[in-house]
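Render this sequence as a predicted structure.
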Amino acid sequence: MPGSGHLSPLTNECAQCHNCGLEIAELGFFAGSHQLGGGDAVSTRLTVLLTLLGEIMNTMKYAVAFAVGLGVCAPALQAQVTNIGLPQDLKPAGVTFSGTGIPGPVMTGVTASGARLTIGASPRFSAPALGWDGAGTYTAQAGSTTSPLRSLWNFNFAVTDVVNATDHTYGLFWDFDNASGSTSYNGFFFNVATGGNVQNSWNLAMAFIDPSNSAPNYDPNDVGEFTFILAAYDYEVLDPNQGVYVGVNPLGYSPPIQFVSMQVNVVPEPSTYALMAFGLGAIGFVGRRRRNALRFA
């Protein structure tokens, strides 16, 4: 993670490859100008052919070595990101989301260094309870409260049980794209002191949630799916100007070690369904009356 405040994109290499000392040889075929004539024409042709054969063999040697190198590095690339989130009906000890009475269930997991990452969603105050599939997907009702304007559900996060402050830098990310398959994320990076914790319960309609805009790019009445990720990265000292993230894939950058995630599917209010049912019923009733009128005309 460079000092720009944004995580650097993964390259097509891994650190292990730099230690392998491998390289891809260029096809160094003999390309000089040759005047084949006189008594040594056959000898010269043979020399050219042998040179070409040597270059081809040399190139094949490097190609094989490079392929072996890729085989060594591929597991390292594949093992860089691990989802450690497991469903849990009750919040882990020490997890309050900085509130009282904020319920589970949650997705939670412990990093290799011993820090616990927990993420979840819950109704805002007396809003309707959320559905839960037991595998990281919540169902919430669309709609809003007023004064202030908020959606009817919050997303909650916690980093607790931090053994060593310099083990990890953490990142929390969310998307405003309610279409299936998130295409953009906002978020923050932060550090946690040894023995400390960082946890809270936020709402997508809060003003600071969208660092790229003066007001959140979010409507509490939107229906669709919203994705949330809490990740642990290699530790980095963050200056006051660092921490804000706006991008397309927080898991595709200077890679996180481990993460937990969840999805919230927002559905219309029951009154909306009732209104739709009434409208469909009215359309059907009118249609039947018209058919009857035509029958007896």
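Summary. Residues 41-78 form the longest helix (38 residues). The helical segments are 15-20, 41-78, 270-296.
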